[in-house]
Amino acid sequence: MKATEEKALSLRTALALVGINMVYASVAVFTKLAAQQDFLSWAYIGCFAGAIAVMGLYAVLWQQVLRHVEIGVAYMFKGTSLIFTMLVAALVFGEQITTMNIVGSAIIISGVLLLARS
User: Fold this and answer.
1) pLDDT by residue (tens digit) across 53-90?
2) 34 Cβ partners below 8 Å, 6+ apart?
C-alpha cells in the first residue's frame, strides 16, 4: 500500500512540475503579444504587465515545489517549458513546428522520463 501512495505522490509531483512549466511557457505569449504592439502603448503595457504577473505566479509556485522536491529533480522538468512554448507558438501565433522541433521534443521527453525513473 505504501508503494502505491509513493507512486501517486510521485505522479502528482511530476504533474505539478509540468503544470508549473506550462505557466512559465505562457510568459512567451505575453512577451510575443507585447512585441507586436507599439512601444509603451496601453496594449504593450498590458501585455508586459501580464508577463510580469505570470512570472510572479510562476516564482511562487516554483518555490512551493522546491519545498517538496530535490532541486535536481525539479530542474530536469525545465526542458518541458520549451515544448509548451513551441506548442503555444503554433496554436496562438501559427508558427511552424518542424521535424527537428519534434525530434528535439522527443529527446527532452525521453530524458525527463529516463531521469524520473531512476
Assistant:
1) 999 999 999 998 888 888 877 888 888 888 888 998 89
2) 44, 47, 48, 51
